[in-house]
C-alpha cells in the first residue's frame, strides 16, 4: 500500500510539474493546409484550466491569429488562437460554398484542442469562443450548432465535441440570409463571397437555390434552447431596425434581432451597444473571464 501511495504521489507531482512547465506554442498544425495552424498560450496551473478559443476576423478573407492573451492568463485561463483557410484559398479547390472552409476549420480546431486536454492541462467543459466580425460569426455558429462530434469515426479528433460553454463576440454577423438582412438594414451588402458570388444582389437572385447553404452556415438558423450563454458587443450608432447605418456589416441591429430570438428560445444573452445604459460587462473579455472562472 505504501508503494502504491508513493507512486500516486510521484504521478501527481509529475503532472503538476508538467502543468507548470507548459510554454507558449506557435503555429501548431491541426490540419494539412498552411493556414490550419493555431497558437496555444497556457495558463500556469496545477488544475485543468478554462480555455478562450479566439477566431480572428477579416471577412474570412484576411486577418491573422495574433492576439493578446495576458488578461486571460492573469485569470488562470489558457488561450488558443486559430488561423483558418480563407474563402479565396478554397475557391480554386472547388470547395462549395467557400464559407464551408473557415467555419468547418474552426470546428476541427476546437476538436483538436479538446483532444489535447490532458497534454495541455485543459478543462474540456470550460471553453468559450470569441472573435470580431467574421470571427464573431464563426464563434456564434459553433455556439449554436448541434454537436459535430462523430462518435463512430476512426479519427479520435473527430470524436471530440464541438460544443462550447459560452461565446462572447464583437461586431458579429448573425445570418447569411440576405432577405432579413435587407429588411433590417436596406443598405446591407456583405456576405456574397461566402457563396462564391460578387454581390448581395446575386445572392438575393439565387436565394431559393442557396437556401440549404444559407441555413447550414448561418448562426441564427441553429439556435435551440440548449445553447450556451451568449454575449454580443457592438459599437457604432444606437441600433434602429429599418435604418441604414453607417457600418451595416457590424451594426448592432443584427445583435438586436438575434437577442430577440435567443430570449424567445430561452437562451441566456447579454447585448451591449451604445444604446444600453446599464452595461453588465464593459467588453467581451470581462464576460469571458466571469463565465469561465465561475
Care to describe what's here?
This protein has 294 residues and is of the alpha/beta class. The chain is built from 11 helices and 8 strands. The two termini are 37 Å apart.
TL;DR?
The protein is of the alpha/beta class and 294 residues long. Helix content is 36%, strand content 16%. The relative contact order is 0.12.
Strand-residue proportion: 15-25%
Cα-atom radius of gyration: 20 Å
- The secondary structure category is alpha/beta
The level of helicity is 25-40%
Give the CATH topology.
Rossmann fold
Please report the first level of CATH classification, the CATH class: Alpha Beta
Write the SSE topology.
Blueprint: H1 2-21, E1 25-29, E2 37-41, E3 49-55, H2 70-73, E4 78-82, H3 87-91, H4 100-115, H5 117-120, E5 122-132, H6 134-144, E6 166-170, H7 178-184, H8 200-205, H9 207-217, E7 230-233, H10 252-265, E8 269-272, H11 284-292
Parallel strand pairs: 3-4, 3-5, 5-6, 6-7, 7-8
Antiparallel strand pairs: 1-2, 2-4
Helix pairs in contact: 4-6
What labels would you give this structure?
single chain; 294 residues; alpha/beta; Rossmann fold; 8-stranded mixed beta sheet; 8 strands; globular; disordered N terminus; triacylglycerol lipase activity; AB_hydrolase_fold; GDXG_lipolytic_enzyme; hydrolase; signal
Amino acid at each position: 500500500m505504501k508503494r502504491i501511495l508513493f507512486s500516486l504521489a510521484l504521478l501527481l507531482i509529475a503532472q503538476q510539474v508538467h502543468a507548470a512547465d507548459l510554454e507558449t506554442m506557435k503555429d501548431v498544425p491541426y490540419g494539412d493546409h498552411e493556414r490550419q495552424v493555431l497558437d496555444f498560450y497556457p495558463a500556469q496551473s496545477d488544475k485543468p484550466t478554462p480555455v478562450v478559443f479566439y477566431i480572428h476576423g477579416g471577412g474570412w478573407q484576411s486577418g491573422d491569429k495574433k492576439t493578446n492573451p495576458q488578461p486571460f492568463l492573469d485569470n488562470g485561463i489558457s488561450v488558443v488562437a486559430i488561423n483558418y483557410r480563407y474563402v479565396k484559398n478554397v475557391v480554386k479547390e472547388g470547395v462549395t460554398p467557400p464559407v464551408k472552409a473557415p467555419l468547418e476549420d474552426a470546428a476541427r480546431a476546437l476538436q483538436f484542442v479538446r483532444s489535447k486536454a490532458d497534454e495541455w492541462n485543459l478543462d474540456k467543459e470550460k471553453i468559450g469562443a470569441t472573435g470580431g466580425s467574421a470571427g464573431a460569426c464563426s464563434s456564434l455558429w459553433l455556439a449554436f450548432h448541434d454537436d459535430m462530434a462523430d462518435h463512430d469515426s476512426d479519427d479520435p479528433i473527430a470524436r471530440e465535441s464541438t460544443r462550447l460553454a459560452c461565446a462572447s463576440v464583437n461586431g458579429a454577423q448573425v445570418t447569411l440570409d440576405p432577405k432579413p438582412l435587407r429588411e433590417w438594414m436596406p443598405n446591407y451588402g456583405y456576405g456574397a463571397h461566402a457563396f462564391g458570388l460578387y454581390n448581395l444582389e446575386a445572392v438575393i437572385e439565387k436565394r431559393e437555390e442557396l437556401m440549404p447553404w444559407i441555413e447550414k452556415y448561418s448562426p441564427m438558423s441553429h439556435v435551440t434552447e440548449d445553447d450556451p450563454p451568449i454575449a454580443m458587443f457592438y459599437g457604432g450608432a444606437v441600433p434602429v431596425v429599418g435604418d441604414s447605418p453607417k457600418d451595416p456589416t457590424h451594426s448592432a441591429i443584427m445583435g438586436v434581432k438575434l437577442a430577440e430570438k435567443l430570449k424567445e428560445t430561452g437562451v441566456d444573452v447579454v447585448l451591449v451597444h451604445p444604446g444600453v445604459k446599464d452595461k453588465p460587462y464593459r467588453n467581451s473579455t470581462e464576460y469571458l473571464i466571469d463565465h469561465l472562472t465561475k
